[in-house]
Amino acid sequence: MGYRKIHLYLKREGVKISKPTTHKYMKELSLKSITVKKKPKSISKEKPFQRFENVLKQDFHAARANTKWCSDITYLKLTNGRFAYACTILDLYDKSVVGFQISDHMTSQLAIDTLSDALAKHHPPKGLLFHTDQGVQYTAKTFVEFCQRHEIRQSMSRVGTPYDNAVMESFFGKFKREHMNHFSLKNVEHTKSIAEDYIYLYYNSIRPHSSLEGLTPWEKRYAG
Predict the structure, then answer these.
(1) Of 115, 102, 119, nearest in space to 196 by CA
(2) Residue 83 and residue 188: Cα distance in Å, rounded?
């Protein structure tokens, strides 16, 4: 976490201190951001069924809740050397996590389960824009047909262009730096418990966002 975010925390707590002074004290205390390791290559037996154009076009703002969602899947290494895969959905209106699931397999079913859970909880209107990368989990026939049945409009990043889904890249960076990298993850259930603590007890409800003018996602969502 950078000094700008620490400064924002202190401001919310009523501590009057400038950004340069915050930066100075962090340097003196040797407080630094934690780097994120590169994502390992994944192999899937699923075949792409249909790819979609980039409708979102890096427009990461939404005028209303539940009109633009982004999603991606990241890996989390377990103590036994295997991986757990976390599928997450963010609402671009308030950057809140509206869907989250973890599995020991990175499949289209994981993506479907995550999206299904988000739909049941948040009830977006027809025509929801759903942006992802071109991973086979999102291009698989089962996932494409699921979106079609629910009248969801798919949008996909260009190949080799992570900036097209920069909001998800940013979220996963925070998710790992600020929380997950500090734990020894025993298995999928243990990983899920730790991850949900961060998402629902901290990220959505406590962590302020500079892009939301210092509000938390839920403050924006329910009081904005």
Answers:
(1) 102
(2) 8
3-state secondary structure labels for all residues of the chain? CCHHHHHHHHHHCCCCCCHHHHHHHHHHCCCCCCCCCCCCCCCCCCCCCCCCCCCCCCCCCCCCCCCEEEEEEEEEECCCCCEEEEEEEEECCCCEEEEEEEECCCCHHHHHHHHHHHHHHHCCCCCCEEEECCCHHHHCHHHHHHHHHCCCEEEECCCCCHHHHHHHHHHHHHHHHHCHHHCCCCCHHHHHHHHHHHHHHHHCCCCCCHHHCCCCHHHHHHHC
Q: Which residue has the tokens 């950078």?
A: 2
At CA 169, angle to CA 171 and CA 82, rounded to 5? 90
Structure token digits, residue 100: 């989250």
How far, in Å, CA of 179 to CA of 15, rounded?
Answer: 24
Delineate the domains of the chain, giving CATH numbers in brackets.
Answer: 1-33 (no CATH), 68-223 (3.30.420.10)
How far is residue 106's CA from residue 133's CA, in Å, rounded to a whole number?
Answer: 14
Task: Report in angstroms the alpha-carbon separations of 45 from 1, 39, 107, 133, 140.
Answer: 37, 19, 9, 17, 11
* pLDDT reported for residue 48: 81
Q: How is residue 171 written in tokens?
A: 């979220």
- For 130-176, what is each residue's pLDDT tens digit? 999 999 999 999 999 999 999 999 999 999 898 999 999 999 999 99
Q: How far apart (Å, rounded) are the C-alpha atoms in residues 102 and 111?
A: 10
